[in-house]
Sequence to fold (209 residues):
Amino acid sequence: MALFLTFEGPDGGGKSTQSQLLANALRGRGYDVLLTREPGGTPLGERLREVLLNQSGPPMTPTAMALILSAARAQLLNDVVEPALSSGKVVIVDRYVDSTAAYQGSGLGLDSAIIEQLRAIAAPRTPDLTFYVDVPEDVAQGRRRGRDITNRLDVETESFHRRVRRGYEELIAAEPDRIVRIDGTGTPGQVHATIMQVLVPILEAPKAS
Fold:
């Protein structure tokens, strides 16, 4: 069955781990799954990811960052996501358009009208379901500090990360049927089990005739 799933959350929340666990679990159930990430997922996207996230690279305005993200996103949608959905795959993307709204919008102050214009151009496909893996800020902060590799957003101020979290809260309030909050404070297995509790009824629901 074709299904478009995305994972969102604060840096250090565990969404990348959960997206991989979900892909493995669905493959074990016999689903044809494609797992990819943003920015990235295509040769162009991976090059743009290096430019965008390299903390030793040149400074960027929020508008420039959003444009780079949108270019990578448009390529990913065209080359990877849409063909996979057309062939009936479950597509899981680690970050998507909500990240731009939260990070470049709420976090860095980019006007929401610009973000919506870029969304319409680069990402007209809306996810069927988005999992927001949520942990308290002190937990996310500790995980970010424990990483061997950081990017330019990891090393932003704590007030920036608080603004990002508020941005996600606004997104959840605006689209509660699409964005599902998942408590990410348990073990990876416990968090994964919660995600499966949400998803399995959708997978097993009778198809409309």
Q: What stands out?
A: The chain has eight helices and five strands. The two ends are 14 Å apart (CA to CA). The chain has one domain: 3-204. The chain has a mean pLDDT of 93.
